[in-house]
Design a protein that fits this description.
Blueprint (H helix, E strand, L loop, with lengths): L14 H6 L2 E2 L8 E2 L6 H8 L10 H19 L3 H15 L22 H13 L7 E3 L8 E3 L12 H17 L5
Antiparallel strand pairs: 1-2, 3-4
Bound molecules: zinc ion (ZN).
The site of zinc ion (ZN) has 7 residues, from loops.
InterPro entries: ABATE, ABATE_dom_sf, Znf_CGNR
Organism: Kibdelosporangium aridum
Protein name: Zinc finger CGNR domain-containing protein
């Protein structure tokens, strides 16, 4: 269970990007690792993101949750009308299950009390995020093959890496090596 967490970091700044980042090495098919398929990962993720504390069997929601995740990923990186429509239909369905506190501004959420609540809850969380100004700050890591998404809150929009310790260091080392050994590229 802890193995499935190795190399994963909650760097997205919000649950929507952290969900997208449950795929590691997305842009390098030889290394791609989908953590959602690892037994127990989802429960651990829900706990560590503070969204819910569940012990239910998560098997049944892995496929629909992956589908939501991939739709959101495409909306954030290369949106097409079909994905907007697909996401819109999911939001409409989730809204049917949502409740809001009687306080302004109204915020519709699906409380996560059992595993079946996870997909509609994350759909509405993603909807809030995709309609927020932060959605325009999403960047994809420049590390070779990485593919993780993060919020670039730097003033001049200059952040390149998901993490300066991981991809940042790796790329700096790669560039340094190329400079030192140009022939071996
Ligand atoms: Zn990265």
């Amino acid at each position: 269970m802890t193995d499935s967490w190795r190399g994963y970091h909650l760097i997205g700044g919000n649950p929507t990007l952290d969900l997208v980042n449950t795929v590691s090495w997305r842009l390098d098919p030889a290394r791609t690792f989908d953590r959602l398929t690892a037994p127990g990962f989802l429960s651990l993720w829900l706990t560590r993101t503070d969204l819910a504390h569940l012990t239910d069997d998560e098997t049944a929601v892995i496929d629909p949750l992956s589908e939501l995740r991939e739709t959101v990923y495409r909306l954030l990186t290369a949106p097409v009308p079909a994905d907007v429509a697909r996401f819109g239909a999911s939001v409409a369905a989730a809204r049917g299950l949502a409740v809001a506190e009687p306080a302004m501004p109204l915020r519709w959420t699906v409380p996560i009390n059992r595993i079946d609540d996870v997909v509609p809850a994350l759909t509405l969380i993603a909807d809030d995020f995709l309609r927020s100004p932060d959605a325009a700050l999403v960047r994809q890591c420049a590390g070779a093959g990485c593919g993780w998404l993060f919020l670039d809150r730097t003033r001049n929009h200059s952040r390149q890496w998901c993490s300066s310790q991981d991809c940042g260091n790796r790329e700096r080392a790669r560039r340094h090596y190329r400079k030192a050994h140009p022939a071996r590229g």
